[in-house]
Amino acid sequence: MNLLTAQLPGRAPRSGKGLTLGIWRCMLVAFVLVLSLGFTQVAVAQADPDREMSSAAPGITAEQWRQVRSGETGPNFRDSRHESTYNLINASGETWRILRNRWVSPFGLIAIIGMAAVITLFYVIVGRKQLDEPRTGRKLFRWSLFMRSLHWTVATLFITLALTGLNLLYGKFVFRSLFGDAFWGWMISASKVLHNYLGPIFGILLIVLLISLLKDNIPKKQDWVWFKKAGGLTGKHHPDAGFANGGEKAWYWLLATVGLVVVASGFVLDFPNFNQSRDTMQWANIIHAVGALGLTAVALGHIYIGTVGTEGSLEAMTTGYVDETWAKEHHNLWYEEVKDQAITEEELAARKSGDSSGDISASRPS
Question: According to its UniProt record, which cofactors does this protein need (predicted)?
Answer without folding.
Answer: heme
